[in-house]
Amino acid sequence: MIVAVLPFLAADQIDPDADALARWLTAGTAAKLADAVEVQQVVDPVGFSAEAIGGAAAALGAQAALGARIKLGGGAVEVSALLANASGVARAEWSESVPLGSAPQLALLLARGVLLGLSEDSLAPPETAEAEMPAEAVLRLARAASLPDPNELLALVEELPAFRAPRVALLRAAVEAMGGERMPEHLAALERLVEMRPDDAEALLALGDYRAVHFDEVGARKLFLAARTRCTGGSERCSCQRSRRKACRCSRARRCSRPAIRSSTCAWPAPCASTAAIPGARSLPPPPPPISAKANPTSKKRSAPKWRRSSPNDHGAGVAST
């Protein structure tokens, strides 16, 4: 299955914070969906309607497409999402307002809602419980991730060690920068991240990939084996099997047959020769289950998006509650 993710639209287009938040949530949702299905991430904005969203899906050869509108104000984020198939028929929609500190959870909730709306319940990521981030830190994170600014992301990792979102954004930015002109500054950020968090398996794997790209097979081998040791030791939410090679690379856009839409495919590249030859580099254990709300009483667990699915009688004109 192919799902297209359209650029989320900021209700206030002149607000830089709202625009950065929309772009950050777009990338995050695409990355979460790419863990389960093939994703086409569209570059150019598309109208927020079932017809426009469905037209984008059809142009990209996708079975469905997701669009969303983001409104920021009063310490809250209001999200309106719409899922449509390639025929321009609304499959599901969702609207909810959450505190700004809960914004980092929206990408996972949206991805889960999309898969449930497509009746792919078995592929939907599990619900997780996370504490709210400070509101100002969320805005800093959105701005840094949308640029991206690896130094600011690293600063947020250092200031907020208990939160995953800054580290995830830094690792994603490093993957997207690989092979580009900004690779040196991301390499420096990864090296500092590993110094700060020597037991972080995902950081070790990301730095190992950079070492392999620079033909440092000895250094890459050491990092990959160190990451395997950390995974075996039960690192919290260690997702090593996916994180090393299942990186959603959406930085290189290509133009599809419809001139108004550019897309980039989130593909799973095959292991390169330098890493495939490393003994044990591909035999990592499965990640442990996510921490539940009971295990973390201070966290706030948000419910999955309450998508409303369209009925066969709607013909795209409306959405009926299930």
Describe, in plain words, how this protein is organized in 3D.
- The structure is a single chain.
- Strands 1, 2, 3, 4, 5, 6, 8, 9 and 11 form a nine-stranded mixed β-sheet that branches. The protein has a two-stranded antiparallel sheet with strand order 7-10.
- Helix content is 39%, strand content 17%.
- With 322 residues, the chain is of the alpha/beta class.
- Mean pLDDT is 79; it is low at 233-298 and 311-322.
- Helix 4 (135-146) runs antiparallel to helix 5 and helix 5 (150-159) runs parallel beside helix 7 (183-196).
Structural class computed from helices and strand pairing = alpha/beta
Beta-strand segment tally = 11
| CATH homologous superfamily designation | TolB, N-terminal domain
User: What is the CATH-assigned architecture?
Assistant: 3-Layer(aba) Sandwich
Q: Which regions have little confidence, pLDDT < 50, spanning 5+ residues?
A: 233-298, 311-322
CA(first)-CA(last) distance: 23 Å
Number of helices, where a helix is a run of at least 4 consecutive DSSP H or I residues = 11
Helix content: 25-40%
Any idea how many domains? 1
Biggest beta sheet attributes: 9 strands, mixed
Described by the principal axes of the CA atoms, the overall outline is globular
Strand content: 15-25%
* CATH third-level topology: Rossmann fold
Rg result = 19 Å
The average pLDDT score comes to 79
